[in-house]
Amino acid sequence: MTKCRFWEDRYLPIEYSIENIRNEDGYFSLCLLKKGTAVLEIDGERCYVSAPALLCLKPDLNAVILKSNNLQIKSIFFAPEFINRNLSVERITADDYDVTCKLFDFPNFDLFYKTDDLYNCIIPFEATELSRVEFLFDSIIEQLSVQPDNMWSCRARMAIIRIFDCAAKLFEGTFGVNQESDTLVDCILTFIEFNIEKQFTIEWLSRQYSTNRTTLMSEFKRVTGKTINEFVLDKRIDLSKQILAFTNISIEELSEKCGFSSQSYFTRAFKKKSGLSPLQFRKKAVENRIKEFQT
Q: In whole angstroms, what is the distance from residue 183 CA to residue 95 CA?
């Protein structure tokens, strides 16, 4: 638990560590191995892991570091109630959570639970993506340790939502099957996922990936069914919906964090896509949860 310095005797179910991957009762763990190697024991099974890698550990999963060499890690531990008071391990593991998840924009916890012979909760990834993943972990650690204002928990929650998205993309890149592979488009999709808050143009992407505008646009549309601008806008709107639903971040700050050039453009684009203004959407999301869960 982390004590909130803005409200007396208020503790929130989230912690961080830069030393270990310890498990807490009822807490999910997101662990970034940024450097080194380790031998882990996960539910009695030994495995070797080399950085960079991301661990997604569910609450009842016993994981310990048996041996390590030059290991550097950063871990975030949180109860699902930190994301929303209506979330719990019991609700997440219920048979109908997929439906609940879609109805209320709750995060998808598949990476914590859908293990198999290939995936054991460890997602290795390329070193080129490390800085962006670490940035999200650092932003959470900063909010928890500094608590610069009374929005610190909302910003930490926002970063957790982003880590969920990035982890899904990393998983897809490592374990994805039965998908049409296109090196150029895959690179662009990864860049978009990890840099959604940045401003970039098709011309800039063309130069960055040594191609021309026509080839880039046609290949991207062939693989995704959308233009680059359509895809980026949809991604930013989807991200903003989750942030609106589960935080009180101001519309100005949210629009910046989601990569919109201005608050007014964000509001127009959001209303065109959803039929509601951002504030109307936030109000409706809260009302729908109260109606469904009585809290």
A: 37
Cα–Cα distance between 240 and 255 in angstroms, integer?
Answer: 8
Question: CA-to-CA distance for 184 and 209, rounded, in angstroms?
Answer: 7
CB 193 within 8 A of CB 130: no
For CA atoms 89, 91, 96, 102, the dihedral sign is negative
52 prior amide bond cis, ω within 30: yes
Q: Which residues contact 19 (CB under 8 A, 6 or more apart)?
A: 73
Q: Which residues contact 127 (CB under 8 A, 6 or more apart)?
A: 52
**DSSP alpha helices (H): ranges in 251-293?**
251-257, 263-274, 278-293
Sequence length of the chain is 295
Q: What is the DSSP string of 194-246?
A: HTTTS---HHHHHHHTT--HHHHHHHHHHHHSS-HHHHHHHHHHHHHHHHHHH
Each residue of 146-160: pLDDT tens digit?
999 999 999 999 999
pTM as predicted: 0.89
